[in-house]
Amino acid sequence: MCVRQRLFWILILIVLGLYSSTVALQKRTNISLMKDNSENRVLRLIIQAYTDDLLNDLQRHPTSQLTSTQMALLKGRMNDLHEHIAEHPALLQSSLWVGKRKPTFIPSISHFRHIENGFDRSEKGNRKIKRGSTYPSEEICNTETNWLQVNMTTDLYNKPVEVIQQEELGQYVFSFRCSTVHGPCRGISPLYESECTERLGWVYMYYRRQDSPDKRAQWGPVAVPNHCACKITPRFFPEL
Question: pTM for the complete prediction?
Fold first, then answer.
């Protein structure tokens, strides 16, 4: 058995042991690995990405046997894997689902209060009546929710990225989109032009930057549709 095959089986055994211990750690820290459903494979994708990254580092020093540098690298990286998984931002997102097909449930609303940008969401069926008013309030722009499989988007630096999509490990994002994009908003004064526009938020996903020389995949925040807002502009400007 060659060195690479032995290394592969060593990684498998270590990952299996760390998986069970990480699950126990997450239970003690009250962080759910599998938000809303035990079939979510976010953890598996994190481990796969970590292993690929480690093997890429080792491939920079091709040899029939592991050198002392490779052994030190392997030991250090595997010792860090437990903390890497426990602190990984992807596990804290109920808006990210990894699996063969998109889920059919709606994530817990409470989790979205911590989503980046802190947008104010008014969902269908969640309308409130103002005290003392005879008319119920309603959305200016209707919003639809759905699990979206993002393929191409941008990162924090507005650089184009490709989200890594695999047959068994497809990445889905729970998104909020306008029912009528670029359509007029409701209840706006005739003095204004109005338009329902989609705004972007950030979700931690596994992607590959298009302008990267080595096309190496990495985890990081990418832009996804996360709410619908009304944009208004005056039809005329009064003389000052």
Answer: 0.70
